Amino acid sequence: MTGPFIICVGNVVRDEVFHVEELPSAGLKTDVLHYEERFGGPAATAAVAIAHLGGRAAYWGRIGADAVGVSVIDALTRHNVDTSAVAVIPGGRTTRAVVTVDLRGERSIMIDRLGLPRQTNLLPPKLPDHASVVLVDTRWPAGAAAALDYAKDKRVPSVLDADGGARDEIAGLIDKADYIIFSSQGITEFAGQGTPADQLQRLAHLAPRILAVTCGAEGSVWSIGHEITVVPAFKVAVRDTTGCGDVFHGAYALALGEGQSALESARFASATAALKASHGDGWEGMPDRRSVLEILSKENVE
After folding, report:
1. Fewer beta carbons within 10 angstroms: which end of the chain, N or C?
2. Do 183 and 160 touch, CB atoms closer than 8 A?
3. Rg of the chain's alpha carbons, rounded to an integer?
4. pLDDT at 25
5. Measured between alpha carbons, how far is 265 from 282 in angstroms, rounded to an integer?
6. Which residues on neighbouring strands pair with residue 250, listed in sequence order?
7. Minimal CA–CA distance to 95: which of 159, 16, 3?
8. Res. 111 pLDDT band, cuts 50 70 90
9. What's the CA angle centered on 204, arms 198 and 209, to 5 degrees?
10. Mean pLDDT, residues 188-212 taken together
């Protein structure tokens, strides 16, 4: 396989997914319409998306030496993701999550990240020479920081999926990354309330870095050279939004590795995430390159 080689550093998760009519309120019992088990996690899902889009992807992360960890490696390998650098932790517990999805495709997630160590010596000692882009999430801050340092040393572009975590750890990762893409919740936690444009303008001191915030059906908002640009979302019938942000980041990193501009990469990522929302079905529902190019050609945007 040819194409850019993207290294994705961070979490992989085994999801237990409960489909319901409406997301439950506190204290209420809710009947389940459908149950499934599948895999997620920001960095791992991004890697799977990249592989389905025709890129080459490696997942660098941690799993426990347990049955879930074995199934994670099997699943990533089946989706053509390089797992040779995955750290298997004796006595560790592979990360698990409970996901509730309503009929509109909106979801709520509870996640257990307590079963794995945080140290950076679980990473390979450097990037391979053929690395095109490094993508990190915030769920393993020490590993993400080390990988971003590797990227800087090699002058390889880096993308930060800034979605949650301790503020001081996020600030440290932002300082190291070239492209910082927040979720709506992530930027609110970091920059406070306000419109996405207002929030990004509060972070203008981080220039010349490229900053963005993904806003689901409202598209994404970008700060490039202190200029605010909105990249609209593509109109689709939403089945499940779980993992769509992770897919966006993976597609964005791949497009950068192919030489697309920041905003061209954003459109490519937006189309990929929209198709993922319409497909649902976890990693099995990843869009391929052809379907993304088709939706891009139709200009089906808000």
Report:
1. N
2. no
3. 18
4. 79
5. 23
6. none
7. 16
8. confident
9. 125
10. 89
* Two tokens, residue 250: 């993976």
Supply the mean pLDDT for the chain. Answer: 91
- CA dist 47 and 9 (Å) reads 9
Taking CA atoms, 56 is separated from 62, 119, 232, 257, 264, in Å, by: 20, 26, 27, 10, 20
**Percent with pLDDT over 90 in the chain:** 71
CB 20 within 8 A of CB 33: yes
Domain boundaries, the chain: 5-21+34-298
- Which residue, among 66, 42, 43, has the nearest Cα to 115 in the 3D structure? 66
The CATH fold assigned to 5-21+34-298 is UDP-N-acetylmuramoyl-L-alanine:D-glutamate ligase (3.40.1190)
Q: 139: which residues sit within 8 A by CB, 6+ positions away?
A: 10, 11, 41, 42, 43, 113, 164, 165
Q: What angle do CA 50, 146, 92 make, to 5 degrees?
A: 80
pLDDT at 226: 83
Q: How far apart (Å, rounded) are the C-alpha atoms in residues 36 and 71?
A: 15
What integer is the mean pLDDT of 208-214?
Answer: 90
Query: Dihedral, CA atoms, 182, 187, 191, 193, nearest 10 degrees?
Result: 150
For residues 250 and 6, the answer to whether their CB atoms sit within 8 Å is yes
